[in-house]
């Protein structure tokens, strides 16, 4: 389904991503981990063409992504939604309109300028918000919501695009453990229930182990681990993070597990 071959992105003398090859044969939930500067964001940004690769190829269902231009590139960006650490909503705009922004690439400039959305789209946006448990906030300005709620609106906006792949760049890095869990549960749901591939950059090992089917570890631009959560032992993690024997998993923990005792699992 997704084939990344010998992908490199150079910024001056630095190879932010260095000759990366990854093959994914079916939609799954993938976590990308690694120390700060390992190249995780650059890898995701090349996938949805926010960055252009220096060399190498990305192929999705037989289509080569790295060379796409103008309308073809926009069409790909619709199929490959992106969620950011800082949510990237329009703060003063209401929640439904933010979700409807997920259809921007599908609409005419005129319709966008005058905020004209088909009724069917508005209903679909509200249905998605309902599914994510935040329909009650639909009419509020995005800026009035908590960080966790804003990230769920961003997920709703991504789903509105009806993408094949959802990329999430440190989606829980700005959230407290409880909201981190809710957002990760939502990402897992859009994989499980909709069959969408989810690729998330994560800075915590416990989150990667708990939510992902496959974990990719990056170090200095290279893939140094690619395996199942079970294979991600403390020793492997130490290699990925380039740490010595004093490496402590607690340093990369969100304490999601500790929360388990306090809040009931969502259905
Ligand atoms: N636009 C840019 N211009 C120059 N260098 C860049 C640019 N973007 C990233 N880099 C460099 O590329 C390397 C990888 O950065 P990247 O942001 O992809 O890493 P990361 O693993 O996502 O880190 P973090 O977890 O801190 O976001 C770093 O050395 C970074 O300084």
TrEMBL record:
Domain of life: Bacteria
PROSITE patterns: ABC_TRANSPORTER_1, ABC_TRANSPORTER_2
Signal peptide interval: none
Protein keywords: ATP-binding, Cell inner membrane, Cell membrane, Hydrolase, Membrane, Nucleotide-binding, Translocase, Transport
Cellular component GO terms, alphabetical: membrane
This enzyme's EC code(s): 3.6.3.27
SUPFAM superfamilies assigned to the protein according to its UniProt record, in alphabetical order: P-loop containing nucleoside triphosphate hydrolases
UniProt-listed Pfam families: ABC_tran
Domain ABC transporter: 2-245
NCBIfam families the record matches: ABC_phnC
Recorded GO MF terms: ABC-type phosphonate transporter activity; ATP binding; ATP hydrolysis activity
Cell inner membrane among keywords: yes
Organism expressing this protein natively: Thalassovita gelatinovora
Underlying gene: phnC_1
The protein, known as: Phosphate-import ATP-binding protein PhnC
